[in-house]
Amino acid sequence: MPGEWARVRVSEVCELIVDCVNKTAPVVEDFTPYKMLRTTNIKGGRIDRETCRRVSRDTFVKWTRRADVKHGDVILTREAPLGEVGYVDFDDTVFLGQRLMQYRANPAVLEPRFLLYSFLSKDLQNQFGAHEGSGSTVSHIRVGDCSKFELPLPPLAEQKAIAAVLGALDDKIELNRRINATLEAMARALFQSWFVDFDPVRAKLDGRQPVGLDLATAALFPDSFQDSEFGHIPKGWTVQPVGEVVDCVGGGTPSTTDPKYWQGGTHHWTTPKDFSSLQAPVLLDTDRKLTDAGIAKISSGLLPAGTLLLSSRAPVGYLAIAAMPLAINQGFIALKCNHRASNLFMLNWCQTNMAEIESRATGTTFAEISKQNFRPIRVVLPPKEIMAAFTAKVAPLYARITANLHQSHTLATLRDTLLPNLLNGTIRL
Asked: Do 291 and 373 lie in a common domain?
């Protein structure tokens, strides 16, 4: 029955609870296998090692004197942010950076992934918040409190079954993320080949058949170059300001104190905050919705599905294609694309030219790129037939990315529904 499981402190069921070394480890620019985990690497049960900083072997040895990080450990952030959790599902030479706690389950009584899902539950997240330290401008959990958290403890077999169900959902979500990353890389590689390196043109100039192109597509490319302000570009291609190719518009925020703009709203309205957790450049939903009256207060109105959104501040550079009609706040430049420059072309163009975009940002408090500074950036444009061919080739890749995102959203909703009910015994396996 629900509530029959005993509640225990983590200190009773973990064989190791270790704080990080509370000082900054010296990093090195050279490639080494030794990686430092930071709070920014820990999120939603996963650990992102791609952005880890590297250290020397001596530093690694010194910072792991208390304990090595092993497969099955659970990592908790004590501060900035508070309460993020990650699971070590890899064998790698990593160590704890500042503001991290390491937990190792006692396998005789506690399944490691059950500990993970317990930490992700509302129950434990509330406990993390209740233990929040005072006397600091930054929310944090005291090290001494990190062994006091309590969790329900079903029999080990039940723990394993719960972890298997929730883990299978998370594993599929992670697989979808990796598939999407591969699909994105394929699209970027094609863009790089056609529109940056001009590989098909160079092949024809050398008397070779362009690699990977059928005869009809290869025939669209010229076999020579012409001079331009960007140097040699394919013959017949043009260089134009991006503002003359696509329509660039901004957004706004209706008064947040007037309920007629928000209460009962059905129109999607986005801010850069919606983009901070995107795992692919497609926006499926927004945190807030506007009413008809709210839409009327924004000069750009309701933008069509397929609009490319570029965050123009806080920070500059988030990118996504809207999967539905929506309005935007003032933190975006929206690109209303067309057959001359499709949204998929412009997405890859912005990704490729992000350094140029960021260099045009101004501001003292925070960097911002205005529409006036964005519109003059020059873009090398192919004839519309090549534009259409590129869009046709990459559109199925982004369609699958979108389908995977929808599936992952459904799986995450199912996981989040099951999680509290499995952990409190309402649903038994």
From this structure: yes
